[in-house]
Amino acid sequence: MRGEIAYIKEKEDEEVQVRNEEENKMVAAVQRKYTSVVGGGFPPSPIKVVVVGYALTSKKTKSFLQPKLEGLARHKGILFVAIDQSRPLSDQGPFDVVLHKLSGKEWRCVIEDYRQTHPEVTVLDPPYAIQQVHNRQSMLQDVTDLNLSDAYGKVGVPKQLVFDKDPSSILDAGEPGWTEVTHWYVAKPLVAKSHELSLAYDEYSLQELEPPLVLQEFINHGGVLFKVYIVGEAIKVVRRFSLPDVSNCDLSKNAGVYHFPRVSCAAASADEADLDPCVAELPPRPLLERLARELRRRLGLRLFNLDIIREHGTRDRYYVIDINYFPGYGKMPEYEHIFTDFLLSLVQRE
Ligand SMILES: O=P(O)(O)O[C@@H]1[C@@H](OP(=O)(O)O)[C@H](OP(=O)(O)O)[C@H](O)[C@H](OP(=O)(O)O)[C@H]1OP(=O)(O)O
Ligand SMILES: Nc1ncnc2c1ncn2[C@@H]1O[C@H](COP(=O)(O)OP(=O)(O)O)[C@@H](O)[C@H]1O
Ligand SMILES: [Mg+2]
Ligand SMILES: [Mg+2]
């Protein structure tokens, strides 16, 4: 029996070794292909291939690693290699960059350990920074602290309270700051991974909601939100349809809680829609650039997006309502060019 186990173990080790050798050969072959001679007559200048290891869910791999991205990347000397989660990360590669979006403590430890032992590799992004936006309580803290206000506008977050028990206790608690809030509440699960959203029309129905959750003031914004995609220093903004405005008239006609299983996922692009120009106007570029630059630094993230709304009836009152790590870049216009340029910018190639 013991002999059998030893035999199986030996076989497995052999297979792993063969796989490692194959992978190393593949990387070396691509390295050779891209090690070209630049500028005839000058000494040869090798251009190194950039190897990007990725650990993504199959859904994410499909939406992000589209043939057009892989093709353009190959053309620019970037090779994407799937990370095998069943093998030690240090035995794979060597990588110049590691891209990852996987959940769980075990993965966080693997990637944190790898960051410590491989400081030469750019890991996008550090697990501790990702953690901050996984929880809706800490997600928007840096936006609050930033308190951005300049000639182009003011950026804040909706008033919010966190409940780990019955949210109707808000009434008993007489929470400061909530007395002036109109009685429209958006309830979101504390864990950002869950996307159910509920709209409560009066504080008495709050007891129907299931904690732990974040209760936010509902901000009327003309039914359109701005998705601001950030890839390093690059920014792209798109419009999406969002929840419609609510009025005091709705308040008198409605009661209770309305549940939306995945409102943001179903939201269609509003870029081509015939919208009221006041609602459609994109946030000023200088404001977004400053916001993105500050948040990149404060959050310690390079790959994320922001959901921003503008209070209806104002020209310059903006609210960040959501921050997502490594969002659906496949929906960002020109992401192939932006992403490949970004990857190249991370690596010294010559
Ligand atoms: O799948 P997609 O393209 O809708 O991307 C989701 C994002 O959509 P967006 O790019 O903002 O339109 C989505 O953003 P929202 O939270 O819907 O604003 C999340 O980032 C989601 O990740 P997770 O499920 O929270 O881990 C993202 O899902 P994953 O692809 O990361 O699973
Ligand atoms: N405070 C708010 N005021 C008005 N609408 C909101 C507010 N918060 C969220 N929404 C609406 O709900 C949607 C989902 O909320 P969001 O915080 O982006 O969560 P998710 O992570 O599921 O995308 C937003 O895209 C927007 O349409
Ligand atoms: Mg969102
Ligand atoms: Mg989100």
From TrEMBL:
Name of the top EC class for this enzyme: transferase
Cofactor note: Binds 2 magnesium ions per subunit.
Binding site for 1D-myo-inositol 1,3,4-trisphosphate: 60, 101, 195, 227, 324, 328
Enzyme Commission number: 2.7.1.134
Binding site for ATP: 136, 188, 216-227, 242
Residue span(s) of domain Inositol 1,3,4-trisphosphate 5/6-kinase ATP-grasp: 150-344
The reaction(s) this protein catalyses: 1D-myo-inositol 3,4,5,6-tetrakisphosphate + ATP = 1D-myo-inositol 1,3,4,5,6-pentakisphosphate + ADP + H(+)
Sorted UniProt keywords: ATP-binding, Kinase, Magnesium, Metal-binding, Nucleotide-binding, Transferase
InterPro entries linked to this entry: Inositol_tetrakis-P_1-kinase, InsP(3)kin_ATP-grasp, ITPK1_N
Any single Pfam family the record assigns to this protein: Ins134_P3_kin_N
Binding site for Mg(2+) 2: 322, 324
The organism's place on the tree of life at top rank: Eukaryota
Residues holding Mg(2+) 1: 307, 322
Molecular functions (GO terms): ATP binding; inositol-1,3,4-trisphosphate 5-kinase activity; inositol-1,3,4-trisphosphate 6-kinase activity; inositol-3,4,5,6-tetrakisphosphate 1-kinase activity; metal ion binding
Function summary: Kinase that can phosphorylate various inositol polyphosphate such as Ins(3,4,5,6)P4 or Ins(1,3,4)P3.
Binding partners and assembly: Monomer.
Family to which this protein belongs: Belongs to the ITPK1 family.
Protein's UniProt name: Inositol-tetrakisphosphate 1-kinase
Organism (species): Abeliophyllum distichum
